[in-house]
Amino acid sequence: MIHRTQDISSTESGAALEFLWLELTNQCNLRCTHCYAESGPDRNIDDLLARSDYENLIREGRELGCKQIQFIGGEPTLNRDLGYFIQLAAENSYSSIEVFTNLISLSDELVECFVEYGVKVATSVYASDASIHDGITQVTGSFQKTIRNIEKLLCAGVPVRAGVIAMESNSKQVEATISYLKDIGVHNVGSDRLRHIGRGKDDSDNSSLTELCGSCAGNTLCVGPDGRVSPCIMSKCWSVGSVLETSLEEIATSDKIRNLRCEIHNAVIEPSKGDNSGLNGMEAVCTPKICAPYSSCSPKHGPGPCEPSGCSPCYPKG
């Protein structure tokens, strides 16, 4: 059972926690070749958190001062309690609630839930050519389903952002895909390079902090379906504890998370200061983009949480 917390005072930055990812499952209905979490149809063996655990985490996050939350996976719509968790987040006064989903399946009930609670939706589209997109997801017909549900959300007035992750198989399609998405009404579109994490690693790769975009040097946390906590969804191999063993408050204010954030800052942000090319040689198209309270995700502007450009799972502007 997850430990509960009491109200605590804010940190110097204003809150002990500013953004929270909750991974609702590691199961997914796609098999994307680059998946950071190595999710898939049969990857729910480590889904250890119960409904009550997620309830506690939503409340604990808010008690720590967090106002922004994203539900992600795996594929979060595969968790039958998603709608309830959204309602609970709204009742706990989160000012930004986002669901990162592949939009393969989207019920009318969920759309109604999104509308009722002001939920934002993020997704990934890998090419405007269906065969290339489906080749990356390894599921035939996934492109058509995702696009159809993007249009369904837009018709309902739900804010949608989308991102394109550039890899060898779609590198020539990135600009065309961005244009295509804007043409169908998705105005918040971004891109990112392939991060060598999870299935994105080469056989010879070892995970390195330099694969992170650097935004998780700020007050952000991700809780996986196995209870393990990391600075962000991309840094899961650098766990700083488990909510099955200790409270979210203890983890969020621990020396271990402070030290890891410092390591991320030194590995990613410091080397990029004064580099006009932005993060890791890219022009501000890293995982996050621009959001309060920082001016940009680019290390040259300083560390901290920021809005995603839509390129991969991350968090929205408050």
Task: Kindly summarize this structure in a few lines.
The chain is an alpha/beta fold. Helices cover 27% and strands 13% of the residues.
Describe this structure in words.
It is built from 8 helices and 9 strands. By secondary structure, the protein is an alpha/beta fold. The chain has a 9-stranded mixed β-sheet. α2 runs parallel beside α3.
The percent range for strand residues is 5-15%
Helix content: 25-40%
The shape is: globular
Question: What can be said about the biggest beta sheet?
Answer: 9 strands, mixed
Strand order of the largest sheet: 6-5-4-3-2-1-7-8-9
CA radius of gyration is: 18 Å
Uncertain regions: pLDDT < 50 for 5+ in a row?
1-13, 276-318
Helix/strand structural class = alpha/beta
What is the CA–CA distance across the termini? Answer: 30 Å
The total strand number stands at 9
The average pLDDT is 83
Count the DSSP helices.
8
What's the order of the H and E elements?
A: EHEHEHEHHEHEEEEHH
Fold topology:
Layout: E1 19-23, H1 51-63, E2 68-72, H2 82-91, E3 96-100, H3 108-117, E4 120-124, H4 130-137, H5 142-156, E5 160-166, H6 174-183, E6 188-193, E7 220-223, E8 228-230, E9 241-242, H7 248-252, H8 255-269
Parallel strand pairs: 1-2, 1-7, 2-3, 3-4, 4-5, 5-6
Antiparallel strand pairs: 7-8, 8-9
Helix pairs in contact: 2-3
Question: What key attributes describe this structure?
Answer:
single chain, 318 residues, alpha/beta, 9-stranded mixed beta sheet, 8 helices, 9 strands, 27% helix, 13% strand, disordered N terminus, disordered C terminus
